[in-house]
Amino acid sequence: EPEVTQTPSHQVTQMGQEVILRCVPISNHLYFYWYRQILGQKVEFLVSFYNNEISEKSEIFDDQFSVERPDGSNFTLKIRSTKLEDSAMYFCASRPPLGAYGYTFGSGTRLTVV
Amino acid sequence: KNEVEQSPQNLTAQEGEFITINCSYSVGISALHWLQQHPGGGIVSLFMLSSGKKKHGRLIATINIQEKHSSLHITASHPRDSAVYICAVFAGGTSYGKLTFGQGTILTVHP
Question: I need a labelling partner for A31 at 20 to 30 A (CA). Which of A2, A12, A58, A94 fits?
C-alpha cells in the first residue's frame, strides 16, 4: 500500500537554529499538508499546498515557517529560527484530487528544541 | 470555525468488552475520519465516512450528518486495541481539505 514517508523520525535542535522536515507524499496525490501535535494536545493544521502554492494556512504558520515542493516528489517544512514552543510531532499528509478518500498521514517527525 | 468534541477522553475496558467512542462537531462537513494513534505517535486512518455506517473487522463507524455526530464501536475489545482514537472532520468546499481534529480518546484494554 502506498505510504507517505517522513524523515527524520526524530530531530533535536538548538533554539534559534533552522530545521527542515522532509516528506515524500504519495505520487499521484495533489494536495499536501503539514500538521503538528504538541505533546498532550490536539493535532493542529499548519498549512495546505496545492498546485505549487500555499492554498491555506493557519495563524500558527507565521513568517518563520515555509513550505516547498522543490523537485516534484519531496515536500518540505522549514522552520527558520526554532523556539522551545516549536517542540512537537509534525505530520505530513497527502490526498488525491477528489474528496477526502485516500487521505494518508506520514509517521511523523518528533522535533525537540533545546 | 468547526469545533470537534470527543467523549469520553479516557476509557478503560476489560478484554472482550464492547467499546463506544463518540464525536460531535459544530459545523456541517463533507466527511469524517476516524484515526488511530499508537504510543510511537504515528497516525493511521481507520475509516472515512460521509454517511451511514462502515465496518472493518471488529470496528464499526457510524455517522449521523443531521445530528452532527459520529460513533466508533469496537466489538470484542483486545489489549492490542489500546491506543488513542481521534476523529477529524473534513469540511470540503473551499477549505482545501484541511482536517479539524478532536482531542482524542485514550483507550486502554486490560487482559
Answer: A12
**What are the pLDDT digits (tens) for A88-101?**
999 999 998 776 67
Closest Cα of chain B to A102: distance in Å? Answer: 9
Please choose, from the candidates B106, B78, B94, the residue with its C-alpha nearest in 3D space to the C-alpha of residue B6: B106
Say which of B86, B90, B104 has its CB closest to residue A100: B90
Cα–Cα distance for residue pair B75/B59, rounded to 1 Å: 7
d(CA A69, CA B56): 35
d(Cα A32, Cα A63) in Å, to the nearest integer? 19
Record: contact A43-B101, CB cut-off 8 A: yes
Chain B nearest CA to A58, separation (Å): 10
Neighbour tally for A48: CB within 10 Å: 24
Are A48 and B97 a contacting pair, CB within 8 Å?
yes
The DSSP call for residue A108 is -
Q: What is the pLDDT of residues B8-51, one digit of tens each?
A: 999 999 999 999 999 999 887 888 999 999 887 789 999 999 89
Q: Is B50 on the interface with A (CB under 8 A)?
A: yes
